[in-house]
Design brief:
The protein is α/β, with parallel strands linked by helices. It is built from 14 helices and 20 strands. Strands 7, 8, 9, 10, 11, 14, 15, 16 and 18 form a nine-stranded mixed sheet that branches. Strands 1-6-5-2-4-3 form a six-stranded mixed sheet, sandwiched between helices. A three-stranded mixed sheet has the order 12-13-17.
């Protein structure tokens, strides 16, 4: 889908979309453009749509409800939903008249329309390509062009991350993710370096190696750095760490078979980091970014780590393995220690599809936020609200740390108790970040992969890309 912007309606239109906020509906304009003067049952509720056929012209008019101003942050989904359902019925040239709306809707329209082009059945033998459609966004404010372009680039990036998350585990091995990052870096101008198993051993990334020891596929550490020439030295360096488990069987503490096929999604944190850095490069943001992605496959083999084993880590701290299904925090422990020692970022954020506990707490509406820094928490929650990629904090009190005591190692990877699982995971990671004053852990298990109207089975959402880029913009000021 090609999306452009203009300030005036073209003289010839075959398919027209008229979006309105709830209660702010220009009935005179609808009548003028649709040729229909009779009352229309349309209130502008979120995702509400009505199709009108011009009585004398070959013109199809779609009325689209965007809900209230409070629903603007998620309005891209209204555009996406309409396009997903109806674009097969559209002409090759579509006009979206945004002139009745604030100019910021140009971003949301472009984003939603771009996301609507995703087809999940990439491996089907009879997959048919969508017809080529050109969309023209209309708004008098010239800022619409910039906002529309940013929405398009954001949508394109999110689509790539959704494809990455939805890729099957037999294709998406750790090197597959690494290769994507390398190609992205070459294309968009940021550095990428990949450490294979020999380098992991040499560097002492023991926890990453332990998790991947039962897999036939080598584990990797993906290092990304985006530092444009015009970066402001006063702007803090942002460090990003993403969990890259390409498939998670649970190891010897094996998962049940009912939903194990969805464990191809256990690299949603890695996708968020790659996507955010890629988008920052596309938008040429003046910010210094460092991304670290430890990536492994947690498989079952004679070499697999066992419950009761003690392993080392990059930090030098030893870990007693209680549950091999608590593997994501192990590779993140190495990733956090690595980024802090080698790059000393001012702010560190890690994103991971880490615990079912977060899903049971928040469902699919928000990610869990874990930090001791109240200012950082407030900033992240603010941009989460702006992007509709919401976060909510859970406590990190010292009492929770006592449950991770090990008699034989520095720490154990699981409390062994069926409660506060997401918090215990956060406290485990905190153990490896050396009291960094500006660190936050985001558990995105419920929001990176889930049900939607766009597929019959669960699928990737691209969560985290918009959130992180919005936070970057906040840091830039």
């Amino acid at each position: 889908m090609k999306i452009t912007c203009a300030t005036k309606l073209p003289t010839t239109i075959a398919t027209l979309i008229l979006p309105f906020q709830k209660g702010v509906i220009n009935t005179k304009k609808i009548a003028e453009l649709s040729g229909i003067n009779s009352p229309i049952d349309f209130e502008g509720n979120f995702k509400e749509s009505v199709v009108l056929y011009h009585p004398t012209k070959s013109l199809k008019v779609y009325l689209l409800g965007l809900g209230t101003t409070a629903e603007m942050a998620k309005s891209s989904d209204a555009f996406r939903s309409l396009a997903f359902k109806q674009q097969k019925n559209w002409a090759k040239n579509v006009v979206v008249d945004l002139s009745e709306l604030p100019v910021d809707y140009a971003y949301h329209a472009a984003l939603g329309l771009q996301l609507s082009t995703y087809q999940i059945g990439a491996f089907k033998a009879d997959q048919k390509a969508l017809k080529a459609i050109t969309v023209k966004l209309i708004h008098a404010d010239k800022k619409a062009k910039t906002l529309g372009n940013e929405g398009t680039l954001t949508g394109e990036t999110q689509l790539e991350m959704i494809r990455l998350v939805n890729s099957p585990g037999n294709e998406k091995i750790p090197r597959f993710i690494a290769n994507y990052a390398v190609q992205s870096g070459k294309k968009y101008g940021y550095k990428v370096n990949v450490l294979g198993e020999k380098e992991l051993k040499k560097e002492g990334l023991h926890a990453v190696l332990a998790v991947g020891n039962g897999s036939q596929h080598e584990s990797v550490l993906i290092k990304m750095e985006y530092k444009p020439k015009g970066v402001n030295k006063k702007t803090p360096t942002l460090g990003l760490v993403g969990k890259g488990i390409t498939f998670d069987t649970g190891g010897l503490s094996i998962k049940g078979s009912m939903n194990m096929h969805y464990m191809k999604s256990d690299m949603g944190g890695a996708a968020a980091i790659i996507g955010a850095i890629e988008l920052a490069a596309k938008l040429e943001l003046n910010i210094h970014l460092v991304g670290i992605i430890p990536s492994a496959e947690n498989a079952v083999d004679e070499r697999s780590v066992k419950p009761g084993d003690v392993i080392n880590s990059y930090s030098g701290k030893t870990i007693e393995i209680i549950d091999t299904d608590a593997e994501g925090r192990l590779i993140l422990a190495d990733g956090l220690a690595y980024i802090q020692k080698n790059y000393q970022p001012d702010i560190v954020l890690d994103l991971a599809t880490l615990t079912g506990s977060t899903v049971r707490t928040f469902g699919y509406a928000a990610a869990g936020l874990f930090t001791q820094n109240e200012t950082l928490a407030a900033d992240l929650m603010e941009v989460g609200k702006m992007t509709h990629e919401r976060l909510w904090p859970l406590p990190m009190w010292d009492e929770y740390g006592t449950d991770l005591h090990s008699d034989i190692a520095d720490v154990k990877n699981f409390s062994g108790r069926p409660l506060a699982g997401a918090i215990f995971a956060g406290k485990f990671l905190e153990f490896f970040i050396k009291d960094h004053p500006n660190w936050a852990h985001l558990d995105i298990a419920g929001v990176a992969f889930g049900d939607s109207e766009y597929s019959r089975m669960k699928g990737g959402t691209g969560y985290g890309v918009r959130l992180l880029v919005a936070y970057m913009r906040k840091l830039i000021g």
